[in-house]
Amino acid sequence: MPSDLAGSVLPRRLADGRLSFDVKIRDRRVKLGEEPEWDAQRAKRLLEQVLIPAAKLKMDWWERIPDAPTRAGGGGSGVPDFHSVASEYVHSLSRYENPNTRNTFVSPVVKHLLPFFAYADADRTIPRRLDEITGTLVTDFTLAKQAERQILSDLSEALSELDDAVLRDPAALAEQLDAREWELLQRYGQRGGRRPIGEPGPGGRISLSSRGLSNNEINRCLTRLRSIFEFANDLYDLALKDPTRRRLLPQTDPSRAWLRPDQFQALIDAATELDASPARGEYAGHSRLSAVLVLGLAGPRVSEFSNARWRDFRGSEGVLRIPESKTSAGERDIELHQVVLRALSERFGQLRPALSDFIWGTAAGTKRDRNNVRNRLLAPVIARADALLAEREQRPLPRAPGLVGEAVGKAPPRVTPHVFRRTYLTYLAWAGRHQRFAMGQAGHKDAKLTLEVYQQPLPSRFDERVAGWLR
Asked: 79-130: per-residue pLDDT in tens?
């Protein structure tokens, strides 16, 4: 974090004799307000406690300026707004001489708590009072951070599958991501947002430096929030209840999800059902069953899946050719198991496509991007499979790691193309297939990636359905 970043408070005299105060950081100058609401001391305190720390984190620091006409300390309630108290709290942390210690306390407040809790409306014009921060709102905060973590985890997997040319071109990369992913990449990419996306690092590639907050890091944010409430109770002689009580999350290791046989069978059944009875107006050529079988029992990367054309399917040889990939090891022939080969052969016979057609193209014949694969092709299958598992009273599909209590019920299933890929490698390990065969099927150049799956704990009782799928 830059240590030499500074700003300035710029007073100016109005025609009526009152002072108006602006603040300037780098080349941006923003008005704070006028007397008597603002004075030089308050302006300087806001600059040093909130705006400069936000600017150092490459955040939109000007959005941290409270709207003076609507602040009102709670409209006569006597309870101050969160933004004011958080600013005072950050100022109190100046007693810590070690800058690393101080930043450990300041960063959760500036980077996570203020953006979420400071305002009560989407336009960020109405400051939220402390007594409006409830336990339910704290739960919403934890859910938001967990959802953000899930998106960042999926985004990391997506970036790992893109070629260098795309990763060096911000415009090309933006086209591959949805709006939320692009927003988070700008916020957390390039060393945690400290380097703009338009200025790649020495390697020239745009990178993601964070996978979001872990449960432990979310708990640290809640600890800072509790400290702010304690600080306000002491400073303003209040008796506010701690909204973080019983809201801490369990500390869990990151989940390495894979699909148990009951779960994969439910996905097969759901895809078969949807292929037989497509929704009204829906493209009937999705062939979701073949997609589920190839993703889960052949393990291509989502980019390889999207790029596959019928000329790459060599039914007589029983392989799916991957002509282009991110590594030399990725260019390979995937040996197709009988159930996968049969599904692709049947689809080819039904469509009679040109060899240049995409195997899982859109209704217009164009290539699907990763979002289309996830949202249009797989999402209906995943939703239906989760319902089937509930009807069968079997284990539900994987959720984001670390969820507990009410959060589990609210969270949707998390089954990404990478989960399918990991499932296939897990089945190979469970069935005792040689690690070198698994490396070849997955296109792994580094044995470490395959070993990570082969060394994970597996159920002691082998499910014979896996043997059938791998014939």
From this structure: 788 988 898 898 888 887 777 778 888 989 988 999 999 988 888 888 898 9
Do the Cβ atoms of 262 and 299 come closer than 8 Å?
no
Instruction: Give tens-digit pLDDT for 405-461.
Output: 555 556 788 898 989 999 999 999 999 999 999 999 998 877 777 877 877 788 889
Task: List, in order, residues 6 or more apart from 300 with CB less than 8 Å away.
Answer: 294, 308, 320, 322, 334, 421
**Total count of domains within the chain:** 3
The answer, as to whether pTM is greater than 0.70, is no
Residue 32 lies in a domain: yes
Question: Are the CB atoms for 249 and 449 separated by under 8 Å?
Answer: no
- CATH assignment of the domain containing 413: 1.10.443.10
Q: Is the dihedral of CA 378, 380, 381, 382 positive or negative?
A: positive
> Is the domain of 431 the same as that of 339?
yes
What is the C-alpha to C-alpha distance for residues 293 and 295, in angstroms, rounded to an integer?
Answer: 6
**Does 154 lie in the same domain as 56?**
no
Q: Are 465 and 261 in contact (CB under 8 A)?
A: yes
Backbone angles phi, psi at 81, to 5 degrees: -80, 160
Tell me the longest C-alpha to C-alpha distance in the chain.
89
* Residues 126, 127, 131, 137, CA torsion sign: positive
Instruction: Give 240-290 pLDDT, tens digit per residue.
Output: 999 999 999 886 555 578 999 999 999 999 999 999 888 766 666 778 999
Sheet containing strand 319-322, edge to edge, reads 313-314, 319-322, 332-335
Of residues 4, 23, 3, the one with CA closest to residue 66: 23
Domain that holds residue 450: 261-469
Q: Domain ends where: 192, 211, 230? A: 192
